[in-house]
Amino acid sequence: MRIDIVTIFPEMVRAPLETSIVARARAEGIVEIAVHDLRAWTEDRHRSVDDAPYGGGAGMVMRPEPLFRCVEQLRAEAGPRGRTVLLSPQGRLLNHDRVRELRNADRLILLCGRYEGFDERVRLYLADDEVSIGDYVLGGGELPALVVVEAIVRLLPGALGSVASLDEESHTDGLLEYPQYTRPQEFRGWSVPEVLLSGDHAAIARWRRAERLRRTAARRPDLLERANLAEEDRAVFE
Ligand code: 9D3
User: Fold this and answer.
1) Whole-angstrom Cα distance, residue 111 to residue 118?
2) pLDDT in tens, 53-87
C-alpha cells in the first residue's frame, strides 16, 4: 500500500511516521508513505495556499489550485489511482469499519486541511471521501491523518505479529477489554485479583468475560446494545 500525505506542515507528521509500528512497516516495505509540502505546488511569489472567503466572513480558505495540481501529479505517477481523502471536521466519523474500508485501497492520498477549511470545489471535484476523527476542534488535519495512517497500518498483513492479527479477526466482538495486571503481585497494598493467580483457566476466562461485560455496561452502554451476547453473558447482569 502507498499513502501520500499532503500538508503545509510536513514537519508535524514526519516524526510519528518514523516511530514504532509505522516505521517498521515502512522499513519492511509493507507500506510506502510519502509526505508532501503543499507549498511546493504553489506558483505565486508568496507561495500562498489560502485566501479570503467569497461572501466575507472570518478566517481563510484553502485555495483549490495547489491541491488540484498536487493530487493530479500524484495520480499521474505510476501506480493505481487510489482514493483521495479530505481530513475535515465535516467528514464521516472514523471508526474501525471505516479504517478497514480504507485499508482496502492500494493507494491513499490524504489531504490535511488548515484554516477554516477547503474551497468547496476540492470537496466536490477532487476528493473521493471526507473523514473526521471526532467531535472536537483541532487546528488542522495533520494529527487526524496520522490517526488514519496508524489505524490502517496496524491492519496490513505482516505489520503486527501473527498472534495480534488473528486477534483482530476473531476478537472484534464489540466489548471493552478486561483489566490486566503484571508484576508485582502486591503494589502499594493493592493486590492482583486472586483468580488470576489461581491457575484455573476456566475461572480466569469467566472472570475476564464478566469484567468485560461489566465495564462495557458501565462505560459504553452504546456498544453493549450492538454486542452479540450469549446466555451466560446475561447472567452476569442478574
Ligand atoms: C467555524 C468553526 N471552525 C473553527 C473553530 C471550524 C473548523 C475549521 C477547521 C474547525 C476545525 C478545523 C480544523 N480541523 C480539522 O481540519 C480536522 C479535524 C478536527 O478539527 N476534528 C476532528 N477531526 C478532524 S479532521 C480535520
Assistant:
1) 10
2) 999 999 999 999 999 999 999 999 977 778 999 99
